[in-house]
Structure formats: structure tokens, C-alpha cells
Task: inverse folding
């Protein structure tokens, strides 16, 4: 999956696969996680937010099925 590099103290890059509704996040630690059944509308909110880390904690963490890649 293609990810775009972002400016964040917590996250390095983010990507989204709309066909499979999978969000992929690379953390600054180098870990990559996928989040499943992630709504496309939520992706656009996440992509455009001012603080990706805060959005992650508020809207994504512990809200979706996830798997480390």
C-alpha cells in the first residue's frame, strides 16, 4: 500500500486502501499497523487533520480491528 509521509511526533506515514477499507499507519518507531473496516469518510478526516496523533488516539485506537504488518 502506498503511504504518504506526514509531519507528526508520533506517526511517520499513513495510507488507505478504499477497495478493502484498510487504513495503514507507520509509526515513528518503524512499526506498521493496519486497521480494518475503516470508513473512507473517516480517512479524509484523518488525512486532513491538524494533529494526526490526537486524531489517532481519539478516533482510531481501540476502535477498529487491527493487525501489525
Result:
Amino acid at each position: 500500500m502506498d503511504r504518504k509521509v506526514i509531519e507528526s511526533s508520533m506517526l511517520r506515514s499513513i495510507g488507505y486502501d478504499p477497495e478493502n477499507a484498510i487504513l495503514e499507519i507507520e509509526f515513528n518507531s518503524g512499526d506498521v499497523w493496519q486497521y480494518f473496516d475503516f470508513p473512507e469518510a473517516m480517512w479524509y478526516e484523518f488525512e486532513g487533520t491538524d494533529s494526526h496523533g490526537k486524531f489517532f488516539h481519539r478516533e482510531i485506537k481501540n476502535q477498529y480491528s487491527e493487525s501489525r504488518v
Notes: Residues 4-68 form one domain. The CA atoms of residues 12 and 30 lie 8 Å apart. The helical segments are 40-48, 52-60. Residues 40-48 form the longest helix (9 residues).
